[in-house]
């Protein structure tokens, strides 16, 4: 009897709870006046719970990448902002100004200038791509480009080969290694113009040390800077002198990062010095060498001090590269052609950007990420 009574009470309570839920559901869906919560009608204000237009956490749009980066690294961005601003003013504005002038016919006679108390406004016109068309049709551009590419390839190849050889030698332990490293890095520490002037004294045809040494051996004096061929050899030699320390330091760091266990294992397997160099050293230096070759190419392509201070593009124009000719148009020739010099500068920038893109694509095909 007690069990039956408990079952009856439980059934009655369950039925009563079911009827309550039915009444609650019916009240919720009962049509009523518009605007009351829980009843259909006019949509309420966005964001209020239980009304249409509600912004729930699920429907919120995630913050963008830039906003997320600014929110997480705002302190770093605040520290970098002054540097970015200064670089933008130093590099960005001159670059934009140069691109604009390359699309005009600006020269010394029609730019804005002040003569005494008189202010003369600019009168140059926008000419579009006429400057670039004239340059590409000019054989002078192609002659300068061929010599610039030759000069760059020769300097980078010889600098890399000499720097790699010296790095391999200095990576070994021997007496006086620190002294040799310091002496080989010395040309990099000396300002470039000082080194160039020193080499100019060495190349002097009458009183230079090089010709004095040759004269002591019964050899006639060599016109180092007065003969077109010898002048090209001379400027390449000076640029190699300036570039080897950079290659040496970079490649020596790369060699020291290669584990010595690889060489020991290869030697135990019977690999000779050339095989170890080919299969261990060169692959281990690939990431470092790819970077230094690219940087050396850009620097050599735009190397102004060596050419200008040593030969000024001479004799004649045999050693003149693209950057020295652009300088001649803007600061030497009369009237000074600002638009033409700017167009030459833009073309130099485009050539280097094209080379960097092709070089990076070639590295990616070889599996290098740069």
Automatic annotation (TrEMBL):
Keywords: Cell membrane, Membrane, Transmembrane, Transmembrane helix, Transport
Domain ABC transmembrane type-1: residue ranges: 145-359
Pfam families on file: BPD_transp_1
Composition-biased stretches (Low complexity): 1-16
Chief location bin: membrane
CDD domains xrefs: TM_PBP2
Membrane topology: Multi-pass membrane protein
GO cellular component, one term: plasma membrane
Highest taxon above the source species: Bacteria
Keyword NAD: no
Protein name, entry field: Putative maltose ABC transporter permease protein
Keyword Plastid: no
Annotated TM spans: 74-96, 145-170, 182-202, 233-255, 288-310, 338-359
GO biological process: transmembrane transport
Assigned protein family: Belongs to the binding-protein-dependent transport system permease family.
Compartments reported by the entry: Cell membrane
Composition bias type Basic and acidic residues, residue spans: 18-27
Region (Disordered): 1-64
